[in-house]
Amino acid sequence: MRRTSFLVTLLAFVAGLGVGYLARTARAAMIKRTDLAAIEKLHSADVEATLTQDPIALTNLWSDDGVNLGVPGTPVVGKKAMGEVYQKFRADYPEFKVLKYAPNIRDVQIEDGWAIEAMDGESTFRMSSKDKPVTVQGESMRVLKRQSDGSWKFALAGLK
What is the domain range of residue 60? Predict the structure, then answer.
């Protein structure tokens, strides 16, 4: 009788572990799908803001404490500083136009409200209406940060 009771208890315990594991795995998969959808929204906003060169839209892609390593000179730190850089660039180059921006996100790894993505891509731009288009290819890595509302913003970006 004791042995039967022990086996039933053991089976119930093992079944509980299995159910708990499956529940955690399903929840993690659901969170990952939600995060990937929100990250895809960020990617779409990035393409739109880059093509329009709207300084406000470009600034809004960044977390408050974001760091941009992809600009000439020293890194730009913080959303306020990003906005100033984008506004100044727009004022200095009013005819600047992005003709093509095609990022290819190769991999996204998500963990605890942070994501790292590797990408490559091709962009074509023209500094003014008189200039010939310039095409550049590059690779980069970006770190993304989940915001309190569930959206994602760039936290660190730079070109290789």
Answer: 40-159
